[in-house]
């Protein structure tokens, strides 16, 4: 593999893991068109990427909601770029909030919502624009363990219904194994993609009953990260 040879297959859920500071967010931001590459080439669906594009949606760790808009207002605001009619924006925003189970909370402000609910608003906002590619940078990193598990179930359901192409950055090996079809492993800085691991586990993936294959894959991924850490120390 060349230094960062990453290929997202259409409709596939790909996770990217690696130690802190290896450049995961940088890579994701380059795919989003937020930062420019100094070297190499990046295309999405054959289109050269040099700026953000509506076919690519991004979800961040810190939710990035406007505190002065309600949940519905946040989704509607994001739709302004694509949908001219106000009633249609409202309808699409409500449909997206319903998809993430928040129709009862549409009129609440971010300050009145829990972390998991805020992230669901952010997911609704991104999905309402119907992007082909969904980029998520540690989206559940700020949530407690229980909420994170519920978000994994929600995301798995949404993904199974819509089959978006997803790139999901995390440093949590278990999270990657619960969600992804393919896991790319990056080494510590300078970040390189060192391995591509196929996750051959059926969905839905239970946390209560771990498959022996899950444990095997976990061992393999932790080993790769650990090995990289040891080589860095030498
Ligand atoms: N290929 C690269 N070329 C130049 N600078 C890079 C490259 N990759 C990462 N960096 C720089 O390294 C720093 C850390 O990168 P980044 O934030 O992407 O890491 P990360 O893997 O997302 O870390 P964390 O897990 O802590 O979020 C940033 O300042 C970024 O600009
Ligand atoms: Mg990061």
Task: Please outline what is shown here.
With 234 residues, the chain is α/β, with parallel strands linked by helices. Helix content is 40%, strand content 15%. Bound molecules: adenosine-5'-triphosphate and magnesium ion.
The CATH architecture name of the largest domain reads 3-Layer(aba) Sandwich
What share of residues is helical? 25-40%
Strand arrangement, largest sheet?
4-5-6-1-7-8
Tally of separate domains:
2
The first-level CATH class of the largest domain is given as Alpha Beta
> Which small molecules are bound?
adenosine-5'-triphosphate, magnesium ion
**Please, what is the average pLDDT?**
90
Question: Tell me about the biggest sheet?
Answer: 6 strands, mixed
Corresponding CATH superfamily of the largest domain = P-loop containing nucleotide triphosphate hydrolases
Question: What does this protein structure show overall?
Answer:
The radius of gyration is 18 Å and the shape is globular. With about 230 residues, the protein is an alpha/beta fold. A 6-stranded mixed beta sheet has the order 4-5-6-1-7-8, sandwiched between helices. A two-stranded antiparallel sheet has the order 2-3. Helices cover about 40% and strands about 15% of the residues. It starts with 12 loop residues before the first strand and ends with a helix. The longest helix has 22 residues, at about 210-234. The protein has 7 helices and 8 strands, in the order βαβββαααβαβαββα. Strand 2 and strand 3 form a beta hairpin. The protein has 2 domains: about 1-55 and about 135-234, P-loop containing nucleotide triphosphate hydrolases (Rossmann fold, 3-Layer(aba) Sandwich), CATH 3.40.50.300; about 65-130, no CATH class. The chain has helices at about 25-30, 70-80, 85-100, 115-130, 145-160, 175-180, 210-234; strands at about 15, 45, 45-50, 55-60, 135, 165-170, 180-185, 195-200. Bound molecules: adenosine-5'-triphosphate and magnesium ion. Adenosine-5'-triphosphate binds next to helix 1.
């Amino acid at each position: 593999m060349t230094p960062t040879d990453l290929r997202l297959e259409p409709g596939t859920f790909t996770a990217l893991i690696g130690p802190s500071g290896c450049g995961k967010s940088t890579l994701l931001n380059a795919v989003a068109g937020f930062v420019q590459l100094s070297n190499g080439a990046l295309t999405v669906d054959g289109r050269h990427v040099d700026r953000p594009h509506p076919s690519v949606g991004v979800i961040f760790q810190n939710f990035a909601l406007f505190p002065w808009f309600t949940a519905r207002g946040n989704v509607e605001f994001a739709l302004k770029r694509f949908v001219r009619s106000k009633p249609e924006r409202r309808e699409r925003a409500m449909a997206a909030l319903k998809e993430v189970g928040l129709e009862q909370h549409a009129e609440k402000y971010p300050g009145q919502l829990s972390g998991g609910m805020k992230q669901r608003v952010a997911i609704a906002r991104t999905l309402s624009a119907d992007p082909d590619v969904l980029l998520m940078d540690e989206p559940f990193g700020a949530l407690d363990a229980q909420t994170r598990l519920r978000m994994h179930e929600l995301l798995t359901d949404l993904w199974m219904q819509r089959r978006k192409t997803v790139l999901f950055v995390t440093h949590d090996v278990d999270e990657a194994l619960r969600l992804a079809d393919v896991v790319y492993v990056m080494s510590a800085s300078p970040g390189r993609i060192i391995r591509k691991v196929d996750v051959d586990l059926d969905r839905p993936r239970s946390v209560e009953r771990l498959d022996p294959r899950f444990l095997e894959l976990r061992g393999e991924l932790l080993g790769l990260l650990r090995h990289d850490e040891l080589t860095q120390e030498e």
